[in-house]
Amino acid sequence: MGAASSRLEKALGEQFPEGERYFGLENFGNTCYCNSVLQALYFCVPFRDQLLEYYASNKSTGDVEENMLTCLADLFSQISNQKKKTGVIAPKRFIQRLKKQNEIFRSYMHQDAHEFLNFLLNELVDILEKEHNAARESLQNLSLQKNSNGPINGLPNGCHKESAATWVHKCFQGILTNETRCLRCETVTDRDETFFDLSLDIEQNSSITSCLKNFSSTETLNAEDKFFCDKCCSLQEAQKRMKIKKPPNILVIHLKRFKYIEQLQRYKKLSYRVVFPLELKLLNTVDNSDLEYSLFAVVVHVGSGPNHGHYISLVKSHNHWLFFDDENVEMTDESMVQAFFGSPQEFSGNTDNGYILFYESLAEKS
Amino acid sequence: MASAGSGGGGGGAGAGGLKTYFKTPEGRHKLQYEKTHSPAVVHYNHSGKTVSQMTVAYLKEKPAGQGSTPSTPSAGSGMRSAAARLLGTGNGSRALSFGSNGTSKAVSGSSRIGGGIGASTSASGSQGMANYDGKGTYIIFNTADTLFISDLNSHDKDPIKSIHFSSSNPLCHAFDPEAKDGHDLLVGVFSGDVYSMSLRQQLQDPGKKPVSYQHFINKDKDKDKDPSQGGAASSRCTCVAWVPEREGIFVVSHADGNLYVYDKSKDGNTDWTFPTVKDQSQLLISHAKSSKGNPIARWHICQGAINAISFSPDGAYLATVGRDGYLRVFDFAKEQLIFGGKSYYGALLCCSWSADGKYLLSGGEDDLVQVWSMDDRKIVAWGEGHNSWVSTVAFDPYWSPPNSDETEENVMYRFGSVGQDTQLLLWDLALDEIAVPLRHPSAGSPTFSSGSPSAHWDNACPPTGVLQPSPRMRDVPKLSPLVAHRVHVDPLSGLEFTSESILTICREGLIKIWARPSHSETNQQPDSSEQVVGNTTAKDKMLTSSNKAGATSSSFKQPSSVLFT
User: Residues in domain USP (chain A) (predicted)?
Assistant: First the structure.
């Protein structure tokens, strides 16, 4: 692996970005689901910067109990502070913590990278919110002691509900709105929900653009599936569609490649060819924002079934594309992304398929 | 959404899920026959997967002095230019160039079918069957390391000739029926080199290697290889084109953003290389110092690949599309950028001119087909209907609008597009429909006030040499397809219109030939045969009827004098 590292350095030569580190991650037995997602997150620069900042400020405050957040921050700081530019790191503590934290990931079985990403982001948010609330409580306790007859009722509760957005939210959170139009009274009911990623149904020989369109296509609620209209006070036929109200800064798209097949009573992997462009705009936004995104990471599932296989990731860093396969890091080319679109016919070969796509907003960058 | 095709949901559905016809207002287009390379061909990929491209070559009769009479001297160069002439200059020349292109079938079809079978059953030694001196229409396509040639007018599925490239995969090709000294076929390969050769000589030679070809080595490709730009892969040829009306001049575009101009009359390859491109995103045109060798000029056009190029039918303008999402139109002789504009997002993958040179089509990774106006120097419409990337766009030069004898000024065009969604889409472009929202952004209709159209739509014509950014979604008029039909199992890579049919090719190299409807056929109860033609007897019947369609194609194609005067 030393040779591989130096090969990467040689390949980049003088173009090796200053201060950047390209490190492979050791596999502790089927932990590639974790490694591939960690690489994508490491090269999500706004996320990494915030995490390293958190690490720095946290370090100074001293002993905090170990959790997923501190372990991840440790790992990222460890990578970024390596003397060497390339090499391999063992994310041992992080994996141990992960297994302690969630029994799903405890076994040596093949795990789902998207589930891991989801778990990790939610865990980080929980920890940050707890810390935030604890900090505020101590602040409030402080102020309470000062003027104890102040109005306190209701305030903490109200605040708690929409607890301040953490930096994880600022990176990944978007808001979807569920528009339902009653076909009788024409009243439109909006219901907002937040998301960290969009999970899209996929079709054979389609594009992400098309999958996003389908995601937001209008669906009619009728027959068994009527909508209770508050205005009509009864079940009515209605039209429903999902739109993106607030596009996230980092858009994570999860392709639903693992589908439960009723007849088989098990999950099956769909290797459909789904093309994804290096730049993307969301067509299904509420305000037609025309916001442009740029692809910077792809987590790829390799293998024909859901219960076995391998995960690798392709990552863009300083306009170079890199290929991360556990310990191995290699230079690759932008056009290699196309090799992971999928297979145009069900039983023909290619099982290395893009599974989670990471796009960053270009507006945020400039 | 206008997705009339059965959609991608059919997942692993085989060819059985595909219909063998599709309907347009003109009638039923039937799958006449298919062509592909023989499955026995050993596919060795020198470098990754190749995408099959298709070129239709109209080979003329062998010139005088070789025993046969010379063909019409003034016919167009290339299919598109011939079509331009027929659309541009009234009836006389239309009939004329039509004759030189389309009706060859009736004359020499049968003999060539015999020849085709002979050549395909035994790779060599059957030369007695056909000498290929006459006219003919051939399909040239590439798969893996081989270039195949099929006879368009034969129903034989196998190619009549395969040319093996031992060192580098052929990726793109072009044919010039007007080429003077015999070398009419260009082949661009993965290494970045280009070969020119005579199509007729290839057909006449029994071997598997190209014969008496000229090899244009691109020395320039080897230097300054930025590993992040793909190293060797970045010099691969993406498109080759003969320059119309400029004898022997051709251009080759590459994945590194360079385009080279060659002159086939200059045989030497110079050792001289072009200056280093310092800013990859800037246009830089350099000329060779020596006047002896090739290439004679290099145009560095954009950062990343040039994905496709296309010359206007008169050869005056060169359009390029690329990875950076821009369409650029150059005055080729003046070497000057006229205008450019961007996709909605992502790379543009293909471009093509209308026969009169007034409109340009492009398509790309935003799943859209863009229509550009040369007069307005901007985008005039977006075609929405593909469910994946658009691989090829083309105007149908043989189509004429209905009611063309009416004097209204509603100029119409028919164009087609194929995509990675396995669909063929046909579109009508009626200019009175799309012109209104563009030229009068909000003035005429107060109800549009909420939209507050952006200012640049008011400008009649942007100044020369300006690249325009992506327009906003709501600012561009939208077109819906007339027909959307899932024609192949695999993603499509190419589309060609001929006088008698529409040709589609998929990335894997299967070609389908869809016969245009004939008048007699559309008149006889068009709805009774609605069901999918499945069994072989019905298919045979269909084939014979489309033969008939071919023979009477002149009645289908009525000349219209009013339109482009």
Answer: 23-362
Contact B260, B252 (CB under 8 A): yes
CB A167 within 8 A of CB A154: no
Q: Where do the structural domains in chain B lie, given as residue ranges?
A: 50-221+233-256+258-265
Say yes or no for a CB contact (<8 Å) between B420 and A283. no
Nearest CA in chain B to A201: B9
Q: Taking the mean position of all CA atoms in its chain, how far away is CA A355?
A: 11
Asked if residue A158 is part of any domain, the answer here is no
Write the pLDDT tens digit of every residue in B376-394. 999 999 999 999 999 999 9
- Is B365 in contact with A275 (Cβ distance < 8 A)? yes
> Around Cβ A63, how many Cβ atoms within 10 Å?
5
Beta strands in B366-454 (DSSP E): 368-373, 378-384, 390-395, 412-419, 423-430
Residues A263, A191 contacting (CB under 8 angstroms): no
User: What pLDDT, in 10s, does the model give residues B497-540?
Assistant: 999 999 999 999 999 999 999 854 544 444 433 343 333 333 33
Q: Determine the structural domain holding residue A315 and report its residue range.
A: 2-142+168-365
From B1, B345, B491, residue closest to A205, measured CB to CB? B491
pLDDT digits 0-9 by tens, A188-241? 999 999 999 999 999 999 999 999 999 998 889 888 888 998 889 999 999 999
**CB interface of B with A, residues 44-73, below 8 Å:** 48
- Chain B contact set for A361 (CB, 8 A): none
Taking the Cβ of residue A246 and every Cβ of chain B, the question of whether any pair is shorter than 8 Å is answered with no
Tokens standing for B248? 């022997």
What would the pLDDT profile of B96-152 be if each residue is shown by its tens digit? 333 333 333 333 333 333 333 333 333 333 444 567 888 899 999 999 899 999 999
Residue A215 placed within a domain: yes
Q: Is B178 on the interface with A (CB under 8 A)?
A: no
Does the annotation mark A34 as catalytic?
A: no
Contact A345 B490 (CB under 8 A): yes
Q: Which two tokens stand for residue B525?
A: 């109860």
Cα dihedral B69, B75, B81, B86, rounded to 10, equals -130
For residue A89, being part of any structural domain is answered with yes
A171 is catalytic: no
Q: CB of B99 within 8 Å of any CB in chain A? A: no
Q: How far is CA B550 from CA B95, B105, B374, in A?
A: 16, 9, 35
Cβ pair B420:A273 closer than 8 A: yes
Instruction: Note whether B347 contacts A278, CB cutoff 8 Å.
Output: yes
**ipTM value of the model?**
0.90
Place of tokens 């952006």: B454
State how far the Cα of A257 lies from the Cα of A265, in Å rounded to an integer: 16
In a domain, A273, yes or no: yes
Judged by CB atoms closer than 8 Å, whether chains meet at B421 and A288 is answered as: no
Inter-residue contact B330 to B337 (CB < 8 Å): yes
3 state SS for B176-200: CCCCCCCCCEEEEECCCCEEEECHH
Give me the residue from B233, B387, B473 closest to A333, CB to CB.
B233
Chain B residues touching A206 at Cβ < 8 A:
8, 387-388, 421
Contact B252, A352 (CB under 8 A): no
